[in-house]
User: Fold these one by one.
Assistant:
Number 1:
Amino acid sequence: MFHSDAGMSTLKALAKGRHQVMIVDEKVLRLHEHRLPPVQAITIVGSEGKKTLETVNGIYSQLTTMKADRNTLIWCVGGGITTDVAGFAASTYMRGLAFILVPTTLLGQVDASIGGKCGVNFQGFKNLVGNFAHPTDVVLDHNFLQTLPDEELRNGIAEMIKHACIADNKLFERFEILDDLSNQLKSGQKEALSLIEQSISIKIGIVIRDEREGGKRKLLNFGHTFGHAIEAAIGIPHGYAISIGMVMAARLSEELGLMRRSETDRLIRLLTRYGLPVSLPIETDKISDALWHDKKKNDNQIDMVLLTEIGKAQVVPLSIQRIREFLHDLRKYQ
C-alpha cells in the first residue's frame, strides 16, 4: 500500500509492535536520525559501487547477529540504490521477510520504490542479479526532498520526464511551462508535488497490467538500454545517463521513421532546461559491448522502447547489429 506524503508517524503505526530492523543509507541516517524509528540499524553506502552481492552478504551477517527471524519487519530507508539492495536482502533472507520501503530521493519516490524490482549489480553490469518482491507498504515523505542536492533532484526529474514521454503528453507540457521545479519540490509547493503523484500514477498503472515485464512494462525502459550502458561505462548519475539514453532512443525513433524530428527537439529542449545532459560524452564503441548484457536481449535482438510522439511509445525488437549501426552513425548528431 502507498502512503503518499506521509510523515514518520506512519512508520510506528505500520510496525504494529513487531521486531524491527532498519537498513538505511548512512547519509540519510546522519541527516534524519531524529525523524527515523529508534530501532536497530544496518547502515550501507548508497552508491552504485556498493550495490553488490558483497553488501547483501554483509546485511545477512548483521541480520543474523541481530537475531532477525520470520516475524522481523525490515525498514528499507534511502534512495533507489539503498531500497533495491535492502529489498533484495530482506526478500531473500530466511526465504523472505516483510519489508517496507521509505524512499528518500526523488528518483526513489517516483521510480525505484514502485513495481517490486529488487537487485544488485554484477561484474559492472546494472541489476544483473535480482528478483521481483513487493514491499508490504511504501511510505512517501516529501520532507526528505528538502536536503537533496540539485543533482539528486535532477536524477528524479529525468525519470519523471521519461514517464511523460511514454504515456502523457499533457504531463510533458506541464514540465515545459514550470519554472524552478527543483526549488518548488524542496519547498513542498503543491503543484510541484502533484507532478510526483502524476508520475507515480503512470508507473503504477503500467506495472499493475504487467508485473513481470512480459509486455507493456517494457515501456518503462525508455532510454534505459543506452542509459545503463553509459552508466556502466563512465559512472555518471543514473538520471543523467537516462537523459542521454532518452535522446539516443528518440534519435533512433527518428531514424526508423517512427517520430518527427520536432518531437526529439522538444525533448532535448526540456532536458537541457532542467540541467540534464543530452549528448554522449564518450565514443560509441565504449557502450556497444554492454548491449550484450542488457536484460531485454533475446538471442541477437533487443526490445527497444521507441517513441512515435511525445506521450506515445512502443516496443520494437531490433538486432544488435542494427543498433550498432545506429551508434556508428550517431556522431552526426553530436
Number 2:
Amino acid sequence: MSTVNTKKDLLVGQIKQVLLLYDLGVLKNCFQLSFGYANQNYRIDTDQGSFLYRVCTQQPLPLIEYEVALMKALQQIDFPTAYPIAKKDGGFIHSLGEHYVMVYEFYNGHEPALNVHTSSAIAEAIGKLSLLPNAPRYLKKNAIHLDTCDALIAEFERAKNPIPVLLEYFKEQTNYLRPLLRQPLPEGVVHGDCFTDNTLFDGNQLVAVIDFEEACYDHLLFDVGVTINGFCFPDNQLDSVLLEAFLTAYQRQRLLTHEEWTLLFAYIQWGAHGMITWHLQNNLLHKHHHSQWQRVQELMHRVQQMRQEETQINQLITQIAKRLKNATNRE
C-alpha cells in the first residue's frame, strides 16, 4: 500500500471518529481544499450534506477559542460567513493528537472578479463588521503591528534568506509609516486578512467572508486598508473607480471620520506592508519560497508606486470624500 493511500485511510478514519461527536450523518467522501500555514481544510460529504472539516495545525487553543467566541457574536448580527457547527455536547473544538479540529458550514462559491459590484459587496460586509456590538469584549492584539515589524528588523542580521532589496525596503517603509499608524482612530473588531481568496462569491453576489484566524481588535481603518488592497488593485494598480465604489458602500454602513480620511492613504499602504510583514513572519526571512517571494515583490512594487503617486492618490481620496459628504448632506 502506498504512503499516499495510508495517509488517506488514516484521515478518513479520523474524520469518521470526529463525526461521531456530531449529528451530521455518516461520511461518504472527503476532498482536500487547501493546505495553508495555519490549517488544513477538507470538504466532507455525508448522507446529510456537505461540511468543512478544518484541522488547526498552528493556532494555540486560546486563539481558536477567541475565534469561536467571535463567531457567536457575528451570528447575532447575521454576518455572511461559514459558522462552526456545535458537537452533541455543545462544544465546538475537538482535540486530535497535537492539533484541534472543527467542523463548519460548507458553502459553494468562487474567488471573485474585481469589479464595482464585488468591491461594493465586500465593503458593505466589512462595514457591518466594523459596527459589531460590544467589540471591546474581543480584545486581541493584531499580529500585524509596528512591534512585529521592529522585531523582524532586529532579526534581519540573523536572516538565513537575506534579500538586501527587501530588507532595505522594509526598514524604510516601516519608519515612514510609524508616526502615521500611532495616531488615535476608531477601533473595533477587524477581519485582518480580507483578500479575495478569503471570500466566496456567486457571480457578483457575496456568499461568505471566511478565515477569521487573523481577526483581532484594532483600528477599523486597518480593515479598510487591507480590503482595498484585496479588491481595488487589478493588475497591481489602484483603480479609482473600484476605490470609490468600495468607499461609497462602506460609508453606507459606517461613516469614516475626518482623521480616517486623512490617514486612508497611509493605511492602504499599511495593508500591503502588513502582508509583507506576514510573509516575513511565516519564514520568508529564513527560507526562500518562490511564490511567497513573488507575492512580496508585487506588494513592494505596489507600495513604492503609491509613494510615487502620493499627491495624486491623496487628491483622489479628497475628491471621493467630498462627493460622499455632499451626497450625505443632500439626503
Number 3:
Amino acid sequence: MYHPTSRVLTVLELLQSHPQISGPDLAARMEVDVRTVRRYVAMLQDLGIPIRSVVGRQGGYALRPGFKLPPLMFRDEEAMALCLGLLVARRLGLGATAPTIEGVLAKVERVLPDALRERVQALYATLELDVAGPAAVVESVHLGILGLATQRGRRVLLRYASGEGVREREFEPYGVACYGGRWYTAGRCLLRDDLRVFRLDRVRHLALLDAEFAPPQGFDCLAHITRSFADIPDIWDCTVILGTDLALARSAFPASLAVLEEIEGGTLLRSSIDDLDMLARQIARLGCPITVLGPPELRTAFQRLAALLAAA
C-alpha cells in the first residue's frame, strides 16, 4: 500500500529522472489526479527542494539544473517490482541481456535488508512465468535506438536481411512491440515509401540519423503489427493457389501466418516465412489440390514431405 510520504518521494524520483515532466504525466504515472500532484510538489517545495513550475502548453515541473539528491533506498514493493521486471526481461530474448540482468540482480540483492533478500531469492528459485520464450534473439542496443528515434521523431538507417538479401534503407519508426516471442518495429520505409513492419532479429545494423519526421497521432504499433504479420519481410515469399474455399483456408491459416484472397476456383495464399517445411505441412493438412507459384524451394519442401509420408 502507498503512503503519502512514499508518494511524495516517488514524485521526487521522477523529477530527478526527467529534465521536465508535465502535471498530467506525473498524475498518470502516480495514478492520482493533477490536483494531488500539485499538493505533492508543494510539500517538496516546503522541504526546500528547488522545483520550478513551467507554464504554457509545453509546461510542467522541473528541478533546478544541477540539483541532485543521493540515490534513495528502494522500498520493499519497489525492490520486488524491479526484480520481477528483470526476471520477465530475461525471458524476452534480448541479446547479451542475461549477464546484464544477473549483474543488476546481484547489485540489488547486496543492498536489500536480510528479510527482503530472502524473499527475493525464494522468488528466483520458485517463480514460473507463463511468458513466451524468445523465438529469436535481438540486440538490446537496437531497442534503445528505436525507442529514442520514435520518441524524438528521428529517422534511422536500417540494414535488414530478408529473401531479397541484405538491403539498406532509411526508416521512420512509429513504435516497437514484442509479440509471440519476437520483437518488431513498424513505421514508414523510405525505400518502399510505404508503411512497413520489420523483425528486429533480422536487423543487421541500425544508426540514428539527424533527419526528423512527424509520427502519426494515435498510432497503435502492436495492433498494426498483428494485422500485418503475413507481409513482414522474411527469408521466403511464398505464393500458392489452394483448391479450396476461403472459409476452409482461413480455418488452417491465421492472419499471422498468411494473407488469403478468394479467387476463381480457389484461394490465393501469400506468406512471408522462414520455414518452408512448416508451411508445406500446414498446407498439406488441408487435403486439397495446390499449385505452387513460388518459390521453387517450396516445391522441394513438398517433395521432401511426400517422400517422408511414402516411407511411413
Number 4:
Amino acid sequence: MTELRQRMIDAMVQRGFAARTQESYIRAIRRMAKYYRRDPALYTPQEVQAYLLHMVKDEQLSYSSMNQAACAAQFLFQTVLGHGREHFHVPFAKVPAKQPELLAREEISRLLVACTHPKRRMLLQTIYASGLRVSEACALRVSDIDSAPDRMCIRVACGKGGKGRYSILSPTLLDLLRAYVRNYRPTTWLFANASGTQPMNIEIAQRAYHAARAHALITKSGGIHTLRHCFATHLLEGGVDLFTIQKLLGHGHIATTGRYLHLISPQFRPPKELDPLDLLAALRLF
C-alpha cells in the first residue's frame, strides 16, 4: 500500500466515513492512477478535469459515476493533500433528479409473497415497515429490536454518515420478527450470512428484491431502496406528518423528505380502523 493511499484511508477513518464510501473513494482514485500511470499527488486540476470528461465521453459512464469520482478527487486533493478549493477546482455535473417508481400496496403484497426465502422475505418486510436503508437493515443486531411495550422501536446504530437513530416497530412487524426469531434463532446478527458470522451481504439482499419483483411480474424499475420510498410515501398518505417521517428516515434536512409530497396519491384514502404507522397491517387488505 502506498503512503498516499494510507493517508487517504486514515483521513476517511478519522472522519467516520462508512466502509462502502471508503472503498468507493479508493477505487475511484485507483482507476484515475491506472489511467495516468503515475502518482496521483502530482496531478494538476486540468488533468483531473480531463479524466472526469474521459469517464463520460470515452467510457460512456453516467454523470452520477463521474460525480462519485469527483467526490473522491475533491477529498484527496483538497482534504488530504491540502490544496485550496480556489486553486484546485473539481467540477461536478448537474444530474437531473428522477422521481422513483413507487410500488402500489397490492404490488408490495405480491412482491413479499413472491419472495419464498423466509429470511430474505423478513428482511424485505422489515425495510418496508421501518423505512431502513438496505445497509442498515442488513447490519441489524438482535439487540437492536426493542419490544418493550413503552418503547417498541428499532435502533439504527450506524446510519448514513455514522448517525444513529430510532425507527418504528409496528405490532405487525414485531409479531413477524418474533416468529422469525423462534424459527431461526439468530444470536448476534438479525439477518446473518450463511455461516452466521457476519451480516447478510447487501448484494444478496438486492438480488432477493429483484428476484421477488420478477416472480411477482412487476415491471417497474428500481432496486430495494424502492421499499424505503414506499414507506415514506405511504406514511404521508396515511396522514403522518413530514417532520416525523424525516426523523424516521434519518434525513438531515426537511427538504429531502419533502420530495415525497410530490409522490402521494390524492385518490388514496387510508382505512380509518388501521394504524397509519403499521404499513404491513394494511397489506392484508390487498
